[in-house]
Amino acid sequence: MVPIQMVDLKRQYAKIKSQVDVAMQEVLESAAFINGAPVQMFGKELENYLGIKHVINCANGTDALQIAMMAAGLQPGDEVITPSFTFIATAEVIALLNLKPIFVDVDPQTYCIDPGKIEAAITPKTKAIVPVHLYGHVCDMDAIMEIADKHQLLVIEDNAQAIGADYTSKDGSVKKAGTIGHIGCTSFFPSKNLGCYGDGGALFTNDDALAAQIRMVANHGQSARYYHDVVGVNSRLDTLQAVVLRIKLPLLDSYIQARRKVADTYDAAFANHPKIVTPFRAAYSYHVFHQYTLQIEGADRLALQTYLQEKQVPAMIYYPVPAHKQKMFAAFGSSAFNLPITDELTTKVISLPIHTEMDEDQQSHIIESVLSFLK
Ligand SMILES: *Cc1c(COP(=O)(O)O)cnc(C)c1O
């Protein structure tokens, strides 16, 4: 059996190697490493795929979030509502900009921010909501947008884990995750569903003025060459990454299908198991399974992880410590937030390998290993 990895990027590369190698070679020979033509071309292609007016490429997903908040003009002391059950970047950039992270608990089924708990967290200082489409499940965006409209708040979607996911509104309209709020942010980190071969990221918006502001902030606050209107950052997608993304974007839907097939097989194997809660799929969210995450009940999750390791099955805890309990937020008094669902999930979740290259032998071995421990 081929060794099992959380994400098998080597085998994925092998299938597109001839294309990638040629495209990379062309970049090397052109020496257009920064702002080469493929960077703009990829941006246009991603606009078409997402059905959005503007894609602005940047250096990584963390930068995308930071640039979004800078471009939106958030000011020190402004409050930003976000979940604590997420990768740290979401909350980190809020604090970095001297904004105040206001943590709201997640829904126990979707693991995404619970819209029913947002309004109670809103104060006169609240300026934005940053929902995270965790593990590839889209948040309840109708409810979030309704609250945002009512209170005139900006919505910045952290779409690093859900690129390509569809969201179906109550009115039946379908949009891509990341294109529903005012700004969407994503990451092209190699292991993400659309990953490049280094760091990369992007912002999406339908708002022309916001797009112009985002472009300016991402490029040293520059409005015209060597004229700098605002304090910005230097955050670019490089040409080598863009050519990889141009090859992988047309494959994204097939990558999502492959992930969903793995998820379906896990779901069937673990259905109705007394110690396992399989991932929930809300009707409005087309889950793209960036992660396949179980909750383990009435068994020792860490012992399961160790047991799986002995069977050559990697498994990860995303995330063992919620943001509000991280030391970095001690000065914000964040540990005082009362987030019982988040706290409980961080003690129960475990993510199994899921990727585009999983074969039947591998998956059977993973399933048998999990079931033999939990019998
Ligand atoms: C990966 C990730 C990020 C950060 O992306 P980078 O490209 O690594 O900076 C932000 N938010 C979430 C939810 C992520 O999973």
TrEMBL record:
CDD domains attached to this UniProt entry: AHBA_syn (cd00616)
A Pfam family annotated for this UniProt entry: DegT_DnrJ_EryC1
GO molecular function: pyridoxal phosphate binding; transaminase activity
Highest taxon in the source lineage: Bacteria
Gene3D superfamilies documented for this protein: Aspartate Aminotransferase, domain 1, Type I PLP-dependent aspartate aminotransferase-like (Major domain)
Modified residues (N6-(pyridoxal phosphate)lysine): 192
Catalytic site positions: 192
Keyword annotations from UniProtKB, A to Z: Pyridoxal phosphate
GO BP, one annotated term: polysaccharide biosynthetic process
InterPro entries listed in its UniProt record: DegT/StrS_aminotransferase, PyrdxlP-dep_Trfase, PyrdxlP-dep_Trfase_major, PyrdxlP-dep_Trfase_small
Protein family per UniProt: Belongs to the DegT/DnrJ/EryC1 family.
Protein name: Transcriptional regulator
Source species: Chitinophaga caeni
